[in-house]
Amino acid sequence: MATRLTKDSDATDATRQHNAKARKDAISESLEQMYLLDKQIAAAIEKYVKPLRDSKNDAKKRLREDYELPNDVISARYASFKIERKATDEGDDKTLDEIREAFEALPIGGMVDLVNIANRASSAE
Fold it and tell me: What pLDDT score does 17 carry?
């Protein structure tokens, strides 16, 4: 049964307690929702992303084992390939021009290193 309030301060305290409980309940509800969403995300990663990661790792492993390419060479070559491929797929001529400009600006030694990496990769095919 409700308690009769006699003073303004009693009404303020009752409101404050009600608001504190509502706040606590809302926070708990949001935290529970976040936890359930994290579980769904983890399940989706396990079901959809993990197999894709495994396939990518298999492709990288083939490059390492079949063509004897070290990880740093694979990573360097893939980074430039990925930027160029994405720009080509999206018709991003500005990025393609910037890539060309960046490679043209490399010092001779840097260009030789890139050429050697590319030659090793292509001769391994």
Answer: 81
69 contacts 120 by C-beta, under 8 angstroms: yes
**Distance of CA 15 to CAs 5, 9, 12, 20, 21, Å?**
11, 10, 5, 8, 10
C-alpha angle with apex 76: 74 to 77, nearest 5 degrees? 65
Is pTM beyond 0.70 here?
no
Residue ranges of alpha helices (H) inside the chain are 8-44, 50-67, 71-89, 93-104, 108-124
Report the alpha-carbon distance of residue 107 to residue 64 in Å, rounded. 28
Question: What residue has token string 């030694």?
Answer: 109
Q: What is the pLDDT of residues 14-27, one digit of tens each?
A: 777 878 899 999 99
CB-neighbour burial class of residue 89 (10 A; exposed 0-12, middle 13-18, buried 19+): exposed
